[in-house]
Amino acid sequence: MVRILSVPFVACIIALTFFSNHVNAQEQGPVTEHPATVTWSELPPIPSVSAAGENTGEGEGEGLAGHFAGVHKDVMLVAGGTFFPEKGRPWNGASRVWNGSIHVLERKNSGEYQWLDTVFKLPSARAYGASVSTPEGVLCIGGMDASGNLADVFLLSWDESGRTVQTTAFPDLPAPMAFMGAVLLDGYVYIAGGTAGQDKGHTTKSFYRLNLQGGKQSSGDDWHWEKLPSWNGPGRMMPVLAEQNNGKYHSLFLFSGRKGAAEGEELLYDAHVFDVHTKEWKQLQEVRLGDGSVRCLSGASSVSVGLNHILVFSGADSEDHREFRAAQNQYRNLKTSAAQDSMRGVLNEITDKHSGFSSEVLVYHTLTDTWIKVGDFPRAAPVATQAFWWKEEIIIPGGEIAPALRSPAVWKASLGAKESSILNAWDYLLILLYFITVLYIGYRYKKNIKTTDDYYKAGGRIPGWASGMAMFGTLLSAITFLTTPAKTFNESWIYFLPTISSLVVAPIVVFYIIPAYFKITVTTAYEYLENRFNATARILGSLSFLAFQVAKFGVMLLLPALAISAITGIDVMVCIIVIGLFSTIYGTVGGIEAVVWTEVLQVVVFLLAAALSILVVAMKLDGGVSEIIATNSDFGKFDFVNWDFSFAEITIFVAISYWVGGGMVPYIADQTVIQKYLVTKDAKSASRGVWVNGILIVVSSVLFFAIGSALFAYYAAYPEKLNPALPTQESIYPWFIVNELPSGIRGIVVAGIFAVAMSTISSTMNSMSATVVTDFVRFKPTEHKKLLVIAKVVSALFGILGTLLAAIMFIYEVGSLWDMIRRLTGLLTGGLAGLFLLGIFTKRANHIGALAGFTGSAVIQYLVSMHTPMHFMTYSFTGMLSCFVIGYLASIVAPVQAKKVVEKSNE
C-alpha cells in the first residue's frame, strides 16, 4: 500500500475530499425555466371548403374541427370535420357544415410543403370520430354526421404511383360512436370513451381494441373490435388517450375529458393507466401541476415524446370557457323564444371576449406521475384536432380555437433541450489530477518489470486486498456505472439480487477454484485446460476468451465516451481517443502491477463519485434521505424479489440461476479475473482478494441502485428539471451530473466515469496480451527479453484495436451491439466455464468428453436463445450445466483415459 501513496496520489485524494465538501457552499436557487423548449412554425393552412362541404380551390379556408388527420407515406391527410360559414354562431342560426373532402399535404424534396389541387372524397361527410396514423394508412373510426353517430371504420392510404387516396373498409364498431380517444400500440388500435348509439348527450366507458393484422381474435371469432375492461371512473367524451413506456413496457394512459350535455358537461380531471399485459387499470393522480392547480384536457391532442413523457396540447379549460359552458347549458334548457333571444346576447357577449382555450403545452412523466408546463402556443390554441409525428416534427392541423370558431392553421412543433451546463476550471483540474496520477503510477512501476512474469503476474507482489479491489474494478464496467441507476430509475431494485452473485459464489471460488490454479504454475487460465485435458482444449479456451473480449472491447470504450461527451460537450471521438490513449500508455508501460494499482485508485474515485451523487440529491431534497426512501416506497421501487415461478423474467429463480451461472463464470474462466489471483503470492492472498471483491460488489450495487432511487425521488420532487427529450434510459444519470451537480463534485463524477472505463480497458489489454503470448507465441521458442518486448507490443496493439473499434462503432452508429454482447456472455462463456468445472470437480472427464461438452453446449445454447422465452441471465447457467452434463456422459462413453493434473513441485 505504501507504494501507491505517492505525492500525486495523496494530492488527488485530498483534492477530491476537499471538493466533495464544496457542495455545501452551493446555492440551489429556484428553477427559472424548463430544460425543454417547444419551437413553433406554420405549414400552409388547410384549403377552403364550401358550404356544401366541397373544396373551393380558393386557398386558405375557415378551418376545420373534429376532422380526421394523420400521415402516410410522407403525405398528410386531412379529412372530414365541420365549420360554420363566415364565422357564424349556431345560437345565432348559423348552420354547421359537414365536410366530405380529403385534403393532401405533400412534402417536396426541397423541404417545402404544398397542398394538392386534387381533392378526394370520403364515403360520406362526417366529423368527431377518431383517427390514428398506422404504417398502412390513416385509420378513421366512427364519428357522426348531421343525422347521428356512425359505426363504420375505414383506412385512408396514399397511393404514390396513382397519386390518389384509397379507402379500405375495416370492421365496424360494436355501436355507433363519436368523441372517443384513440391510439396505436403494438399493432392494436385502442379506443376509449365517447358517446355511443344515438344518445349524444350521455357518455360511455367503452374500451375496445382492434388487431390491425386481422384474422381470428383470442376468442376464436372473426375479425372484430375486442371489448376490454373499463377504467374505474366515469364515462367521458373527448379524452386524451396516449401510449408511453411505464419503465418496463408501453402502457395506455387515459386523461381527463368531460361529461355529455345531458350530464351537465362536467369537466373531468382524473387520470388512469391500462396495463396491456395484465389488462388491468390503475388510477393515477389528477391532472395537477406543481402549484396544485388542476387541468381539464377535454379536446386536447397529445403525442408521446422521449422515453417516458407525453406532450399534451391545449384543452377546453379556461375561465372564459367555463363561463361559456355554463351560459350554453342555460340556453339549451330555456323553453321560450324570448328567453332564448335574451340569452343569445349573453352568449355573444361572452364569446366576443372569449380569450380562447388553454394555450398551455403540458408534459406528463409516466414514471413519477407528475405534470408540468413546458410552453405555450404562440397564438390561439386549438382543440378538437389531432397531434401526430411527421418525421421528427409534431403536426397539429386546424381545430377549434374559440366557441364555434375554427382555424385553418397547421402548426409544426419540435421539442428540444436547452444547452446543458459544461465543466468549469475546478472540474477540469480534478480530472487533470486524476490523469496525472494514473500516468505517474504507470511510470512508477515500469522499473519493476524484468520478465513476462513481472509483466503479467507482478512477480506475486500484490497484496490480497489490492487484488480484490482490482478484480472489482475489472468487473465493474462503465456500462454498469450508467445503466444500473437508469434501470432502478425506470423500474425498481428487481435487478439487485443478481448483482450480489460474486459474494454468493465466493466460498466455492475460495475453496475449489483458486486452489486448482495454485496447484500448477500458470500465467493464463487456459493453461489449466491443457494440463487437465489437452492442447486443443487450451487453444479453444484462449480463442473463446479473445473473441469475446474483442467483441465487447469497443462497446466498453464507446459507451463511457458517449456519456462523457454528453456531460462535457467534448467531441465523442476526442473522448474515445483520450480514454484509449491513456489506458494504453499506462497499461503498456507499467504492466499488470500498474494496472492493479491504478484500479485501486479508480475504485476509490468512482465509489466516491457514486456516494457524492447520493449526498447531493439528499441535500437538495427537503426531506433528505427520508424523502428518497418515502418516495421510492410509495412507487414500489424497492421491490427486489419476484416470486413468480418463471425463467422468462427477473424472478428469484432467475436470480439463483445467475448466481450459479453468471456469477461463477468470470471467477472460473475469465483471464481478466483469474490474472488477479495470480498477481498475489499464494492462494490465501488470492482468497482474501475474492472476499474483498465480493464485499465491494455488494457495496457498489447498493450505491448504484441507490443513485437510481435518489434520481427518482429528485425528479419526482422537481419534474420541471427533467428533460423529456432524453435519447436513452442511460442518459438520466449524465443529465443529472451536467445540470445538478455542483462544480468540483461534477469533476469527481466525470473522473469516476473515466476511471471505471479505463480500469476495464487496461486490464483487458494486459489479459489479452497474456493470452496471446502465453498460449500462442509459446509454440516458437523466444528469448525472455524479446518475449517481454512482444508482450508490451501486443498489449499496445490491443489498446489501439479497442480504440479503433470504438471509433468505428461510433462512426457507423452500431447501437444495438451491447444487447447482443450481453447474450454472447451467457451463450459462449457458460460453456467455457463448464470445461473448467469438468476438470476441477470430476476425475473421469477426458479431452473427448470436454470437447463434446463444449460443442453440445453451444448447440443447446443456440436452441435456448432462439426457441425459448428464457431470460438471458439464465444463459450462463444453462451453458455451464449442459457442457458439464454432456461432457461427463461423453467421457464415460469415450474409450480414453482421463488425464490427471500435473501439480507443480514444492522443491
From TrEMBL:
Gene3D superfamilies per record: Kelch-type beta propeller, Sodium/glucose cotransporter
A GO biological process held by the record: sodium ion transport
The keyword Nuclease appears for this protein: no
Membrane topology listed for this record: Multi-pass membrane protein
Molecular function terms, GO-annotated: symporter activity
Protein origin, superkingdom: Bacteria
CDD domains: SLC5sbd_NIS-like_u3
Protein name: SSS family transporter
Species, as recorded: Anseongella ginsenosidimutans
